[in-house]
Write a structure and sequence with these properties.
single chain, alpha+beta, four-stranded mixed beta sheet, 12 helices, 22 strands
Length: 463
């Protein structure tokens, strides 16, 4: 286990077990109402709210992990541990609760130990990383060992400085999470923007001013069959569930065309090369859609921009052959709300699971058609606006990455004493003598020793 380095001299070094009780028990009446926390209700964000259900204490005290207000809980099992499921327990009914047996519970041994400091410790990168590396058990059900938690090294600040650190962390990390929440709303705003662009394109509003300066006539109302020359489908073949490597042959999954961009990594490997149909090979410029998918993803189109693998159509992916000049227009239409509604209304199957659209129903979809000059201008404008939205989205994703790293950066500064460096200079009397971290640690050790029950001795009997 890694040692603690670069901490203030006024801090004491100890192990986590020196300052907490691991998995304590509660003593309460069986008919008392208590909080119940299954794993699903545990938050992953630093300031996430720990939700709970209400149950009688007698129903949950034995089979579940006990905790009380002021305790720190965190998941010990994969993947919940790696996802950071943890919280400080607050506002439980009657001040007590119980939850999943896959929780560890840490209860500070003294009122002079800050729950926020303990919580920040188990949310730190070093604890998360070393805990994941220490996991034991079978694949898919690995757990953080109790011995790792107990032995984890802690740099313990004096009690007054712990409060100063906790206040700093609450303020700074709340600002981080507010920033993160605002950034996470932007992709939805961009999604609505893209749909508004597509709606304007389909209604003619996008080129209304442009059209008024030309001598073009109105739009035609046709069906998709007037643009599509023919439709090709692939085969349903049993494959190896990994993408093909170099010089191997494979078949695409519906997820290869699901998200608006062709993803050839979403593919499977054919067990034999002779199963590959050259006539169904994926090529640059192909217009592909899924004929089977969930209702919100069915019929999403992609135009293949790049090919590096030997892949062919599957039975659930259709290739629509049409003139190159019409592909971008049909792509815009099928991604618009009008096109999506036509796809969904003509689909069949279970509303709650997989839906399908037949080739005949697909070809009967009505589609507006401007003259070629205006169609080209609409495509150009949509591409330009979408490229602008894509740039913003990339900037947002980059910013989110920096914000996510910021939480760990702040925690690292806290445990190096950097957040309270000036505070220590201003308050030397609060970190020395009886107020020092060493004195605090000695008091905790003395309290632990005093609370241990005396050992019973046997009386010797005379034969």
């Amino acid at each position: 286990m890694k040692e603690i380095n670069h901490t203030p001299e006024s801090w004491a070094r100890c192990s986590l077990v020196d300052v907490v009780v691991l998995n304590p028990k509660n003593d309460a009446s069986a008919d008392q109402v208590a909080g119940f926390v299954p794993m699903a209700l545990a938050p992953t964000d630093y300031h996430g709210i720990l939700q709970h259900e209400e149950k009688l204490w007698g129903k949950i005290k034995k089979s579940y992990t006990n905790f009380a207000d002021g305790d720190i809980i965190f998941a010990k099992v994969t993947p919940c541990f790696e996802n950071g499921k943890a919280a400080i327990v607050r506002d439980m009914p009657g001040g007590i609760g119980a939850g999943s047996s896959e929780f560890y519970v840490l209860r500070p041994t003294s009122k002079e130990i800050s729950p926020t400091l303990i919580f920040a410790t188990i949310k730190s990168q070093s604890f998360m990383q070393q805990g994941a590396e220490s996991m034991t058990g079978a694949v898919g059900l690995r757990r953080v060992p109790r011995a790792f938690v107990e032995a984890f090294p802690v740099a313990l600040p004096p009690a007054a400085e712990q409060k100063a650190i906790a206040d700093k962390l609450d303020t700074l990390l709340a600002q981080v999470e507010n920033t993160k929440a605002r950034l996470e709303r932007i992709p939805q705003i961009l999604k609505r923007f893209r749909q508004s662009v597509l709606a304007a394109a389909m209604s003619g509003r996008l080129t209304e001013e442009w059209r008024s300066m030309s001598e073009l006539t109105g739009w035609a109302n046709i069906s998709l069959r007037n643009l599509v020359q023919n439709i090709e489908a692939g085969k349903n073949l049993k494959c190896i569930e990994t993408p093909p490597g170099e010089n191997e042959f494979g078949i695409i999954k519906i997820s290869a065309v699901t998200w608006g961009t062709y993803d050839e990594e979403q593919s499977k490997t054919l067990p034999e090369k002779n199963l590959f149909l050259e006539s169904r090979r994926i090529k640059v410029g192909d217009f592909l859609i899924s004929r089977a998918n969930t209702i919100d993803l069915l019929g999403n189109p992609v135009i293949v921009q790049k090919v590096t693998k030997n892949l062919m159509l599957s039975d659930k992916v259709l290739r629509l052959n049409m003139d190159d000049e019409d592909k971008a227009w049909v792509n815009i239409f099928l991604r618009s709300m009008t096109g999506r509604k036509e796809i969904q209304d003509r689909s069949t199957g279970n509303q709650m699971s997989m839906r399908n659209i037949g080739q005949k129903a697909l070809l009967e979809i009505p589609i507006p058609k401007p003259l070629y000059e205006e169609q080209t201008e609409i495509v150009r404008r949509v591409d330009q606006l979408f490229a602008h939205a894509d740039r913003i989205e990339q900037q947002v994703n980059n910013a989110l990455g920096r914000v996510n790293n910021l939480t760990q950066s702040i925690l690292a500064k806290a445990f190096r004493g950097e957040l309270t460096e000036q505070w220590r200079k201003d308050n030397p009397e609060l970190i020395s003598g009886d107020n020092s971290a060493e004195a605090l640690l000695e008091r905790i050790k003395a309290e632990k020793a005093a609370s241990k029950p005396a050992k019973k001795t046997r009386k010797q009997t005379t034969a």
